[in-house]
Protein: Membrane protein
Amino acid sequence: MSETITPSSDRSSPYTGTVLPQGRPFWIVDGRAYDFTEWMSLHPGGAMWFRQTEGRDISALLHTYHRDPERARRFLAKYEIAELAGKTVRPKVIVPPRVSEGGAPRPPDGPPPISEHDVLPKLGIPPFLLAPDFDARTDLPKLDYRDPGSLLAQIRTKLNARFSKRDLKRYDRAFDAVTWIIGAAHVAALALLIAGFLPAWAFVVIMVVTRTSLAGSGHYHLHRKWKDQRRYTMPLGKALFDINYVGTSLIGSDGHVLLHHPYLGSGADVKKTFFDSMLQLHPALRIPGYTLHKFGICLTGLPFRAREIAKFERPRRNRPEAASATPDAIRTDFWLIRAWIVVEFIACLVTGHILAWVVQFVITLWFNTFLVVASHDFEETTTEQELAAIPEPLREDWAAQQICLSYDLTVVGNRWVDLFLSAGLSPHRVHHVLPWQGSGFANLASEKTVREACAEAGIPWERPRSLIFNRFPAVMKHYLLCPAKPAPPPPHRSPRPASAPAAPGSHAGAAARDDRGPGAHPLPILSGRLAGGRRLITCRAAPPPGWACVQQRGGPVRRGYA
Structure:
């Protein structure tokens, strides 16, 4: 049973330049093209991960987010696209080759197969999060995470021998129990303040500590499996990611889990580029500008925009043979946390404690902002000198780079307490090497195993860095004092040309997305009608003869021969 996506205009934004997939769904794994539309609803981790990564090369995700990736790859072989079985596909942009450039015209008896030209060059995310010249074909890191002799494989072998799935589940349950206790303390602090039993200064301290701890728990929940087949879903732990006023769980699963983790330090690491946008402001405007921006998002902005944001995580899909469309899931947990944040503000406002709320808001916001960027050296680009601690044979090893480019953070010196005070960044190196683990307790328990594998490979294990005295001064100097950087040009928005009928038999083509620059999106320049109520759209890219976008009356646009 195949699935199709509604036309890209329903999801793509002409304001951000975001271009999302259109046509037959596909995913690239180790150079092979797959169609996982039937498998995604059966995936033990949930279908969300496939919806967000459609049109991408997901090789790194398969190899780094599974305990036994080789077994998973063999199992998924049945979903390889038949016309490409056995062929290696390298990610390129969907631009049909011209006949004059050596591209052979496609046979006129059906739509063109998924080919090497079909991977999204901008990964299906707003281009302003990427460098203007970013191209997924060439800019994604080509690191070693598959070789049985890689560091990741050695760590996985040792870990599977020492811990069973049941052992790790026990750590996750203990972690969740502590999270519930912290959540209860957070709610109780607000109630005690309103009742007059808690002084304002104590309320501020408790709010900062509990919000930081709960956001760290939400961070781990973003990495967990999610049974998202129900209409109303409430993975409450995931939405805790938002409670520190910095994160956004609706997009965190993509930007953080699927892009930052596998592509740390590369052009696709949107965690770095997101915070670098602050540097476009004058230093004198950064603190007030960022604070007011987050205040607006906290109270009104994000709830009003959440429906549009949700489209990027849960695009609507239609089954042609079904009587009705499969609806989007509704993230009720997201709305609960957002409502609670507003309730806290209103409760403090009407009871005369608004100053205490403002103080805890500002401290929580900036403490967690600096905390998020302190776990990596985002102040500088990665250089050979930073990778010098890695033995030469492992310089291109994915796990070795994850360990080298991540920092463990310490606050009071106890790793288990620091886990919550640092929002889960106490065992940060283990978390980056084992991103599929679901809790900080599992990370801490696994650290000994990871350190043993690193010692055998000759990779030194540095001491944790002090959050307050080592990392905070560096990130504060960088994000608050460095000179302003020029903003990238806005996305190109061309006016829609007037339509004119296409001559019968004329060459016609369409590109669902291209690489004509940051934010570029194709606009049709000619349109006409074909027999049977089909609409012919002619776009800018010149395709082989007869290749066109064909739309049945009232149906989705499909690429194929007219």
